[in-house]
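User: Quick sanity check before I run a bigger batch. Here is a single chain. Can you write out its predicted 3D structure?
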Amino acid sequence: MAKSWYVFTGYGDPTLFSNYRRLTVQHTCLCGNEICAIYADGEGIYPENPLSFQLQAYIKKAMVTGQLQPEYPTDAKKYVYLRYK
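Assistant: Done. Predicted structure follows.
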């Protein structure tokens, strides 16, 4: 399954696929206090439903720590980016 970048709409539960839309431009997010973008399975306007258990865990951890996920190893591909509201 192909993966795409999806931006969080800023409303509702960030672990639900329906609260994301596919990005058609490069995001500029990094760290912050809310979810910005995720790298998830899918190629359509929405990511695949449901978001994987691992991606949901990364989203939850990012919301608690304010850090890109996964944090470790530090050179790992990041699947969750944040932004300041």
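Helices lie at 53-65.

User: Great, the batch can go ahead then.
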